[in-house]
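Feature request, filed as a ticket because there's no other form

It would be nice if the structure record came with a short human-readable summary line next to the tokens. Right now we just get the raw output. Example of a typical job, pasted below so the devs can see what we mean:
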Amino acid sequence: ERGLIEAAHGWKVEKDPHGAIAKLDRLREEFPRDARVPYLKGRILSRTLLQQGAAAAAFEEALALNPDDNYTLNSLAFAYLEDGRQDEALRTIRRYVSLEPENPNARDSLGEIAWYGGDLPAAIEAFEQAMRIEPVFFSKRSIGYTQAMLGRFDESRAALAEFGESGTVRWKTTALWLRSLVDEATGRFEAAREALEAAADYAVLDDRPETVAELRMLVGELLLQRGRTAEADGWSAKAMA
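Raw output as currently delivered:
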């Protein structure tokens, strides 16, 4: 336990992922049956060092020791995905779903992996299954942008509106930003601008100054595209304030 805590501290607090992995490798020799050791190593390799192939190997070691662990299955599936191994990612995440069919996160992860593989109808089906299990869930956001990619813009707007209304201020910010992309893509300039401005206002309430600045810059860029230079300059100034 102490060794795992020290390794996690070295990774998260001391910002020394290589030192944390060295400690975990020593722990692996000392405790070869503890699945938590290769699992934590996989997390460091995947999230910090972005070495997805090595991360997948570590998660495979953890899974061999604890075959039905949902965290390991989910992490392994996404390591496979980011390593370009779509078939293995799908096979792994489907196993997670089969073990926990009523877990909305399992269904949502299946949707994400199907989405990245280009199977958008299957992605929407999985996201909707997650929503049926837990109606207030962030899969509604995924349904919104996937519907837009399929050209179903009215359905996309409806899903994003529902997502924004059902969650936190941060959800509202995200929903409005995504809504602005849909509106801009369909030529609804004023609606896109209003959505971005509202998103910036919610980001102020959420005390996220960097997000506020980014959204205000996007408003300025949108105005500049329409030749409204003076207004664009005003929003750029707000972003820099």
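Something like this underneath would help us a lot:
The mean pLDDT is 93.
Residues 169-185 form the longest helix (17 residues).
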